[in-house]
Records
---
Amino acid sequence: MRFGISFFPTVSPTEKSAYQYYEECLDLTVLAEELGFHHVKTVEHYFHPYGGYSPDPVTFLAAAAARTNRVRLVTGAAIPAFTHPIKLAGKLAMLDNISGGRLDAGFGRAFLPDEFEAFGVPIEESRRRFSEGVEACKLLWTQEDAVWDGEFYRFGPVTMLPRPCQRPHPPVMVAAAASSDSCEAAGRAGHNLQLVPSISHRERVQDMLALYRKAWVDAGHAPGTEHVQLSYTCYLAAAEAEARRGGRMSHENYTSKLAEAVSAWAHTSSAQYPGYERLAQQVTSSDFEQALRDTKILAGSPEQVRRQVAQIRDWYGDATLSLQVTSGNLPIEESARTMRLFATEVMAMFDRGD
């Protein structure tokens, strides 16, 4: 198993300035490399305390690239629906070169109605815009005199500069929420997969992974070469009581910010997002203790978290865990402590194959 760090801001300007948040995350990025974590990842969201401090993951990851030499840099995920593919492909290719070929290019559909409305993009077009944007980026990365004649974009012939450092292009990752179709499509296309197990039942996640891995092999991709990335909130302390305190605070902060961001679903419906009109109610009913029992949150002493990670491996097979160690509202010292404890007393055990 491999382990990385995820930066998903759930913080408002009244709690912490953007400047302070970025400085703290960049300091934690340096620590992540020192401790041997596989990657750092950040999101693309707008307007809300839920993710709003990260409207452009490429900007943050470029700063992270300047302070590191080895750690992978992951967009988790960039949103093709909100950016012209020429602009998006160019930004990502620049980042890949600046970092010396350390980019994993994650793409997502987006799911917040307020964001689609602000960009003037019909939410019913989200899947088609996503698919077209990803394929157009891959074309721009790999072909000279590229020509695209799609539903939403037309361009060419154009030759993108710079070309990506990684050839033929950076690894492509697809973020999926609860869509089996998205998982199967990612497997057929040979894309790696990003999932958030906390939003689905364990059996549902297992089914999605099985469909993805079967589609991967059926499409002729080498078995076992796929890369699955699973995201979890993580909080460690030497004492269980302290770990539960911090884990609960992180969970409650995240769910309160998410509930505000998804409130528009109470008066929005879309065939592209079945069941999302109940999302706000589901978020507000989330219980920390139940989530902990269901291993949807990693929190506890190192020994307890080791057991949780072993359980995840048994459930989902070989995967990379992306750990949310800071939401922005807790002191950076607590995030650094979590990372050090995880690296020395959890990650080290699994690196030995235990």
Note: Residues 173 and 192 are 4 Å apart (CA to CA).
---
Amino acid sequence: MQLWKLFITALMPVLKLLLLTAVGAFLALHRFNILRKSARKHLNVIVYFVFTPALAFSILTKTITFRSLIMVWFMPLNVLLTYIIGAALGWLFLKITKEPSDMQGLVLGCCAAGNVGNLLLIIVPAVCKESGSPFGAVDVCNKKGMAYASLSLAIGNIYLWTFAYNIIRIYSGKIFNVNKVDDSTVGPVSAIETDLESHSTVPVVTAEDISENNDRTTHFGSEFTLPGEKARASLRTLVDKLNLKVILSPATIGSILGLIVGVVPPFQKMFVGDNAPLSVVEDSASMLGDSSIPAMTLLLGANLLNGLKRSGMKFSLLVGIIVIRYIALPILGVVIVKGAIHFGIIHHDPLYQFVLMLQYALPPATSISTITQLFGARQTECSIVMLATYVCASFSLTLWSTLFMWLVL
């Protein structure tokens, strides 16, 4: 296929994304104030609790089987590699520039965590629906593409709230209070955090306090607790550190349920198909899930307006994050995926290979804003980074998508 046709095919989804994002920003302007802070908060809650898990459940039940799940085993490893490589490049960049410690958590988080969930749910189906799409019939492409994107969403959510969350927590090194999270934060989790925590009092703590308390607990337990009690205490500590309440988000739970229904044939016969006794459940979930993509895109546009705030952030930091996310990571992604194809690790599916490469070229995850606010780590600068990187993404995603399609065909 001619390179120009591939460019047009790659451009159309990005233009659709930009139009919906612009509508979201337009609705959030003070002159109209339709998507005001309170409206964004409530829409965030609906997207987080209803639309996204319904979308993941409905797609995975129809598209994932045990055989196909075995075939996409490389995707969790691929997403993990995007986090590890991004964090390593960010760390190297910080060592060269010698930035202050309070900026390091933000930079590392933005370099490590890409938006491997929401944006793929928008871009991949749009690519499939284009008349010049190189991935075959629209229905088949859309079915497989949404399955890959939903699986990526669940995997990315787990890595975000374990890997990136703890990087920012370690490098922020500041006093924080969960109750201080602003309702206008970018990610959907923030609205949930605010609602849940508003009914309880959370003390202000520091990293030193946590370390000191852990030392005292360990010393006390080693002298006076039984082995079984020690094991239970260690398990509780591990659960608290992993923050399982956040990791097991509704989207992840929806994905797990969808995988169970898709992989277990008796369950699939109960939910999927015109003659399935519980097909109404799957149909209802599909109807709700269809609302997820436009709602998420409108929220993205509305929340990016926060990046217009003034700040003393160095321009070099923005350039460094953009270079890492849009030049270094995609190049390394091509090398990794092509290497995996060469050694027979990845099966021959151009759409699957395209999604794997695309995971390296995405802008930072919008939930990074939520995490930085949890730890008081440069919230205004985070909004500026989000605005700058998502503006640049409109150009870089088009170019990289064109190249990726050319490479996998």
Note: Residues 174-214, 216-224 have pLDDT under 50 and may be disordered.
---
Amino acid sequence: MTEPTFAKQYDVVIIGGGAAGLSAATTLGRSLRSVLVVDDGAPRNAPADGVHNLLGSDGMPPRELVRAGRAEAEQYGVRFVSGRVAAVTPGFRIELVDGFRTRARRVVVATGVTDVLPDVPGLAEQWGRGVVHCPYCHGWEVRGKRIGVLLTSPMQLHQVHLFRQLSEHVTVFAGDPAMIDEEARALLRARGIRIRPEAIASVESANGVVTGVRTSSGEDVELDAIVVASVVEARIGFLDGVGLAAADLVVDGLRIGSQLPASTMGATSVPGLWAAGNVTQPMATVVASAAAGQMVGAQVNAELAMEDARAAAQQ
């Protein structure tokens, strides 16, 4: 339902209230811009126990980081509304699923991505805890433990060596042995990484903790953590009305997801519509996303300042 105390138009509407969106909001709020943040309360990293490599806040729970960031932005007059955007249409009219409507002079998209996981029973339930993907986000927490890698593409082999840096007990479950050529196989063996030709049929847990996997051959293997590579899909379906669509993210000839195309400064092909964080850089960590949000906030404010100056000169 429309909240009557909200303005009909803002200088900037930011879609997404994670690290990138909150950083952009704070930067714009400190510049005395009227800002509204629309957030659906579903941050990508919500399942994780803590955010890492974030200077001064290492280990802070993701939702606590969002709460603190939101409180900081509110100090500078930034407004928030809970909900999911249904559509952005020309003239930067923003409509939420629940019917809330407003307009903006500029829009910042910071909705992030959705992680699409391999279809393995028991895997999704442990995502962000016993099932991990990033050695820099979760590696310290699984150091020295028994780690199994669910190999889904040859490109993932670099991930295996990064986790081997953290533990001597790494096993690769190839499923399709053709994904590992002779050179790659030699490198794995040189590092003492075990190679199993079976796929992982299911992830086994007890009392909320990963205990191992069951292979496609029916064998139970005891493990403490499972490494996977998700497919990352940009959350931008609501931008169809302004002609923006996700582009395939391809690395070494393999599609690993999608992203919203944008310049290094965050400008999209639609003038006045900017993007920051994982939605345009799916591999960015929290600290990188926050930095991108700050940069985009500064760019948007500068653009608006020049627009304000030109409008004043015409009076």
Note: The longest strand covers residues 101-109.
---
Amino acid sequence: MSENRRILLVGATGLIGRTIIERSPDLDNITLQGVARREIDFPEGVRMELVLAQSDAWPDIISQLEPDAVICAVGTTQKKAGSEEGFREVDHDLVVELGRAAKGAGVKNFVHVSSVGADAFSRNFYLKVKGETERDLKSLKLRRLDILRPSLLRGKRQDDLRPLEAIGQLSAPIGDMFMRGAKTKFRSMKAEDLADAAIAFASAKAGGQFIHEYDALMRMVREFRRELAAKADSQDG
């Protein structure tokens, strides 16, 4: 991870986007850019370029900026979108357009935050859309595509009240203890862990298409943090 890399964060105002922004001061080999519809209050020490635009202009911004990597943390809820069609427009149509723009701009790494259980043939509307999005991103044949499939995320959202999720976060640490074997993928995850995994995959060098669930995500988090600690130790020495 010694190579300096320009990473464009799409979906900068959500839980994962904000967490990645908070982590950025610790990553001296990353130049972080972001695109969002509204301004963000940056935490102390954060330095990044933020482009403000409506979401239909985001693919063009990728084409103009030509980043090395894109982290796509775009997502909404059916309640916020107002309908199933509105949800699909964001979680499928917009995401695929972003992937297509990344392909055209020569982006090396495209990291997409999906969901555990994503399946294009699911009877569950949410999981069906997530699966269709994964399928259509794969068809673009990006140089490297990493699909992250977290379950419940633990962290504080801003301006996004999700009562059921909040209840789930309180009980998750206990429930996670019973998630073993094939059920491990359903364990909850801290937003900080998923953010670090996304950053690490955005810096990966090998090409290909990869799907990562809980165990694989946490392995990458541990490796990523070991490398950061080793680098800090060498600088201190």
Note: Helices lie at 15-23, 58-65, 78-81, 84-104, 125-139, 163-176, 191-202, 214-236.
